[in-house]
Write a structure and sequence with these properties.
heterodimer; A: mainly alpha; MetI-like fold
C-alpha cells in the first residue's frame, strides 16, 4: 500500500499548497485589522505583514469604509446582491421552462432549437459586449439595474444543464400526469421543477459566481455609485492612488465575507456544481 | 384514432409558450448583438453618433486596418503567451492538488475546501491582495533580498515589460487552479482502481503507474481542462486592466482589453466589432477542436 515516507511527502506537499493559498488571505485579514497605515507600510515587506497581534487588532479601517460618504459600501453590496439575485431567480424559471419544453415535449424543430442553444454556449460575452453596449446605450439603459440584469437572465448553458436533468427523468412521471388530464405547463410547474433541486443549486451557484465576478460589463454600463456593483467599486477605490492598504483590505474582507460564508456552508454544493459544469 | 393520437402528441403550442421568455431574451441579447457585431464590423459606426459623419458601409476596411495594426498583433501575441503559460501551469498544479486530495491524506475534505477557496474570491479582491505582494518594498522583493543577502534589490514586477505578464499569470493561477482541481478529482475518481492494482502486481513504480494508468485514464479530462482553461485565458481582462492597464509598453495588452479600449474608450464601434468577430472565431476554433478530439476518442473507445 502506501508507505510511511510517501505519506509524509504527501502531507508536506499538501501543507505547502495550503500555505500558498492561505498566506495571501492572512495578509488581507491582518492588514485590514491594522488601524495605523504607517504600521502597515512598516510591515509590508516582512512576515509581520501576514500577522496581526489579536490584542492590537483594530476595527478602524472597517469603520472608515462603512462611514465613507463618497464610497457607500453597503449600497454597493446591495447593488451586487440585487443584480445577482434577479439574474439567478428569474433565470431559474426562464431557463428551466425552456429546457423542459426541449426535453419533455414533442414538437417540430425541437432538435434544431436544441442545436442552436448548444451552439450559443460557445459565444463569449466579451465578443458581444460592444454591440450590446450600443443597444443598451440606444434605449437609455446606461447606469441602470436593468442593463446589468435583463441581458443575462436567459443563459444557454443553464438551459443545457436543465435539459440534461429533465431528459433523464423517467417517462412514466409525466405520462401518468397527462393521463389524468394535466397540461404540459402543469407538469413543468408541479412535477419537473420541484424535482430539479440539484440542478437549481448548480445553476444558481455557477451563475452567482459568474455575475458576482462580472467586471467588463459593469465597467462599461455603470457610472455613478447608485447602481455600481461592489467589485467594481473596489476596483475604482484601488485605482485611486496612493493605495490606503488598511481600507482596501477591510473593503475586500467585507465584500468577500458573504460569499465565503455561503461557500463554507454549502461547500459540497459548490464543488458539485463545478463537476456538473464539466460533465458533458 | 391515429389522428387524435398525433394531435395529442404534438405539443408545439405549450412548448412555444414555455420557450418564449428564454427564446425572446436569447434573440434580443445574444443572437441580435452577435449579428449586429458582424454587421457593424463592416461599417464605421461610432458609439456616440456624429451627425456630420453618418455611419456608412466600409467593406473590409476595419479588418484590413486591424491586420495592419501592430497593436492588434501584439494583443493576440500577449493573450496567447498568457494562455501558453497559464494552461500548463494551472493544469499541472490542479492535477497535483487533485492527486493529493485523492490520496490517503488525513482530513482530505478540509484540504480540498481550502484549495478551492480562491476560486470563490472576486478577481478584484485577489488583485488588491497580490498587488500588495508585488510592491517595490513588498513581500516578494523582501524574499529576493533575503535569499541574495541583499545583493539583489528585487524587481518592479508590474512595471517591468519582461515580468508584468508572468506576474499576472501567477495571480491568475493562484485564483483559478481550484476549479480545475475539482474537475481532475472527478476524473481521478472515474479511473478503475483495478488498473492500479494490476500495475502494482506488475511491479510498476509510482512514476510508471502515473504515466501508464493515471495519465491515460484522464485523457478526456485533460482535453476538457485544457480547452476550458484556454478559452478562459483568452478572455483575460480584469487582472490586466486592474494591475497594468495593458502596460508597460503594451506588454500585457490583451484582445478583450483592446476590444474594450477601441469600442468603449475610443468609441470606434466598427473596429471593435471587427475585433470581436476575430476573437469569436478564435474561440470557436478551439471549441470545435475539442469536439473533434473528444469524438475521435469515443470512436476508439
Amino acid at each position: 500500500m502506501i508507505t510511511r515516507s510517501e505519506r509524509l511527502v504527501i502531507l508536506t506537499l499538501a501543507l505547502v499548497v495550503v500555505l500558498t493559498v492561505l498566506a495571501p488571505l492572512a495578509l488581507m485579514v491582518a492588514t485590514s485589522l491594522k488601524g495605523d497605515e504607517n504600521r502597515i507600510l512598516l510591515d509590508i515587506g516582512s512576515l509581520a505583514a501576514f500577522w496581526v497581534n489579536p490584542l492590537e487588532a483594530e476595527w478602524t479601517n472597517y469603520a472608515q469604509v462603512l462611514a465613507s460618504q463618497t464610497q457607500p459600501f453597503l449600497r454597493f453590496l446591495f447593488n451586487s446582491v440585487f443584480v445577482v439575485g434577479w439574474i439567478v431567480v428569474v433565470g431559474i424559471f426562464v431557463n428551466s421552462a425552456a429546457a423542459f419544453a426541449l426535453s419533455r415535449l414533442r414538437f417540430r424543430g425541437r432538435n434544431l432549437v436544441l442545436a442552436v442553444v448548444v451552439a450559443l454556449i460557445i459565444i463569449p460575452m466579451e465578443a458581444l459586449a460592444i454591440p450590446l453596449l450600443l443597444m443598451v446605450n440606444r434605449v437609455g439603459w446606461l447606469d441602470t439595474y436593468q442593463a446589468q440584469i435583463v441581458p443575462f437572465i436567459a443563459h444557454p448553458f443553464s438551459i443545457f444543464l436543465f435539459y440534461q436533468f429533465f431528459a433523464k427523468l423517467p417517462k412514466d412521471i409525466d405520462e401518468a400526469a397527462y393521463v389524468e388530464g394535466a397540461t404540459p405547463a402543469q407538469v413543468y410547474w408541479k412535477i419537473a421543477l420541484p424535482l430539479s433541486g440539484p440542478v437549481i443549486a448548480t445553476v444558481a451557484i455557477l451563475q452567482s459566481l459568474e455575475y458576482w465576478n462580472a467586471y467588463l460589463w459593469p465597467l462599461m454600463v455603470t457610472r455613478g455609485p447608485e447602481v455600481r456593483p461592489v467589485s467594481l467599486a473596489l476596483a475604482q477605490f484601488f485605482g485611486t492612488p496612493p493605495p490606503t492598504w488598511g481600507d482596501l483590505m477591510a473593503f475586500s474582507v467585507m465584500m468577500s465575507l458573504p460569499i465565503l460564508v455561503l461557500y463554507l456552508a454549502f461547500q459540497r454544493w459548490f464543488i458539485q456544481s463545478v463537476v456538473a459544469s464539466a460533465v458533458k | 384514432m391515429p389522428k387524435k393520437r398525433s394531435s395529442l402528441h404534438d405539443q408545439s403550442r405549450p412548448a412555444l409558450v414555455l420557450m418564449a421568455p428564454a427564446g425572446l431574451l436569447i434573440f434580443v441579447f445574444i443572437i441580435a448583438p452577435f449579428l449586429l457585431s458582424l454587421g457593424l464590423s463592416f461599417t464605421n459606426q461610432r458609439l456616440v453618433p456624429n451627425p456630420n459623419l453618418p455611419t456608412s458601409f466600409q467593406g473590409f476596411s476595419n479588418y484590413l486596418r486591424l491586420f495592419g495594426n501592430a497593436e492588434f498583433w501584439q494583443s493576440f501575441r500577449n493573450t496567447f503567451t498568457f494562455a501558453l503559460l497559464v494552461v500548463p501551469l494551472q493544469s499541472a498544479l490542479a492535477l497535483g492538488a487533485a492527486m493529493l486530495v485523492n490520496s490517503r491524506l488525513p482530513a482530505r475534505n478540509v484540504f480540498r475546501g481550502i484549495f478551492f477557496l480562491p476560486t470563490v474570491l472576486t478577481m478584484v479582491v485577489v488583485v488588491v491582495i497580490w498587488s500588495n505582494l508585488f510592491q517595490i518594498n513588498g513581500f516578494f522583493n523582501a524574499v529576493i533580498q533575503a535569499v541574495t543577502f541583499g545583493a539583489h534589490p528585487g524587481f518592479d514586477w508590474l512595471a517591468n515589460p519582461a515580468l508584468a505578464m508572468p506576474s499576472i499569470v501567477l495571480v491568475s493561477v493562484w485564483q483559478g487552479f481550484g476549479f480545475q482541481m475539482v474537475i481532475y478529482l472527478a476524473g481521478l475518481q472515474g479511473i478503475n482502481p483495478e488498473l492500479y492494482e494490476a500495475a502494482r502486481v506488475d511491479g510498476a513504480s509510482r512514476w510508471q503507474e502515473f504515466w501508464a494508468v493515471t495519465m491515460p485514464g484522464l485523457r478526456n479530462t485533460h482535453i476538457f481542462v485544457v480547452v476550458t482553461t484556454t478559452i478562459l485565458a483568452l478572455k483575460l481582462f480584469a487582472q490586466v486592466d486592474l494591475l497594468t492597464k495593458g502596460g508597460p509598453l503594451g506588454s500585457t495588452q490583451t484582445v478583450v482589453r483592446l476590444i474594450y479600449e477601441t469600442g468603449f474608450r475610443k468609441g470606434q464601434v466598427g473596429v471593435a466589432a471587427a475585433l470581436s468577430v476575430v476573437f469569436f472565431l478564435v474561440v470557436l476554433a478551439i471549441s470545435v477542436g475539442q469536439r473533434v478530439f473528444l469524438k475521435e476518442d469515443r470512436e476508439v473507445a
